Amino acid sequence: METERYFLPHIAWMEGYVPGEQPREAGFIKLNTNENPYPPSPLVVERLLGACNEGLRKYPDPGATGVRQRLSRLFGVELEQAMVGNGSDELLNIALRCFAGPGDSVVYPYPTYAYYEKLIQLQGARSVQVDFGEDFSLPESILVPGARLTLLSNPNSPSGTLLSVEEVEKVAARAEGLVLIDEAYVDFAAGGCLELLGRYPNVIFTRTMSKSFSLAGMRLGFGFAPAELVAGMWKVKDHYNVNQLSLVAAEAALDDLEHMRANAARIQATRQRLKGRLRELGFYVWDSQANFVLARTPGPSAAGLYEGLKERRILVRYFAQRRLEDCLRISIGTDGEINALLEVLEELLKK
Ligand SMILES: Cc1ncc(COP(=O)(O)O)c(C=O)c1O
After folding, report:
1. Can you list the alpha helix ranges (DSSP code H) found in the chain?
2. Is 158 in the pocket of ligand 1 (CB under 6 A)?
3. pLDDT of residue 212
């Protein structure tokens, strides 16, 4: 490509991240990007409608004070320990920009959220992938001498598996650099690791409103870290990184935690049912603590099942990559959506 020469070489050669499909036409059952099948709190919609007025001519609060005050109160952290981003992807992006430069090692277990690798490449940093155990346990080799940053998705995507606080604490205590714990799916899990915030100076947490709060479209992520780290990371963000409507939506969502919790509980119940039925059908299903499950097929090709489901307008995620070639990742939908998925899967398996 003629224009390649204009780009920095490491950008020219890298391939961009490919998000899950967002079909243009209606009528798909979308179980491919871990969105929440239930609507956000009615309070979010009500406050958003109220905020669509002439006030939009002004810039939003660059400090996202209203959201951070709520986070501080709800999670028992200091205001200065809370940060807000345009999706948690932005907070991950800021972390990489702050902490990893050309040639620096950034470690993460494999397979995990594929965007980590792209962010590392963008920095010209060195990606150090350490294979998870077969059961998605964390190997000792995750402690890489000299690593600037270790990234842990917990629960992990695409396996849904959860590392215990003790396992994560061992990494935080022994890692030479920072440890970022990506808790995007924590509200669907038995528990998170936030208690480590006060105990270790090198831990950073990211969370999101995209999954449990049903607000993927608003792009609202938040995070916690020791105050000095937050202050440093704040220098790197765009001044007005979160738009006014997203701030309004986030405040409302945090004012109605009950709504989120009730939806998370419904999703956990459907997850349990889906896991059970997939196992009866012969799939190997890892023990997911997230709003999706990873299932290894009992024989037929996973790519074939993915295509067969897509023909019937059901989208799941297939990753053509090492260790996942024979697996499908299925987001938890409504009970009706999961029934439809199971019906088609059973038909495909009979063929
Ligand atoms: C593990 C993990 N972290 C972070 C994100 C980013 O979420 P968002 O940018 O919507 O907050 C995702 C999205 O799918 C994810 O799977």
Report:
1. 9-13, 42-51, 65-75, 88-99, 115-122, 165-174, 227-234, 244-255, 257-280, 302-311, 335-350
2. no
3. 98
CA of 88 to the centre of ligand 1 (A): 6
85 lines ligand 1 (CB under 6 A): no
Q: So what's the pLDDT on residue 21?
A: 87
Which of residues 227, 256, 285 is at a domain's end? 256
| Centre of ligand 1 from the C-alpha of residue 6, in Å | 31
* DSSP states along 125-137: -EEEEEEPPTT-P
Asked which of 256, 280, 310 is the last residue of a domain, the reply is 256
Whether the CB of 35 sits within 6 Å of ligand 1 = no
Please give the tally of structural domains in the chain: 2
3-state secondary structure of 252: helix
- Please give the distance, rounded to the nearest whole angstrom, from the Cα atom of residue 263 to the centre of ligand 1: 18
Does the beta carbon of 188 lie inside 6 Å of ligand 1?
Answer: no
Show the tokens assigned to 46. 């009500």
For ligand 1, say whether the CB of 41 is within 6 Å of any of its atoms.
no
pLDDT per residue as tens digits for the range 174-212: 999 999 999 999 999 999 999 999 899 999 999 999 999
The whole-number pLDDT of residue 1 equals 62
Low-confidence residues in the chain, pLDDT < 70: 1
Range of the domain at 199: 42-256
The model's pTM is 0.97
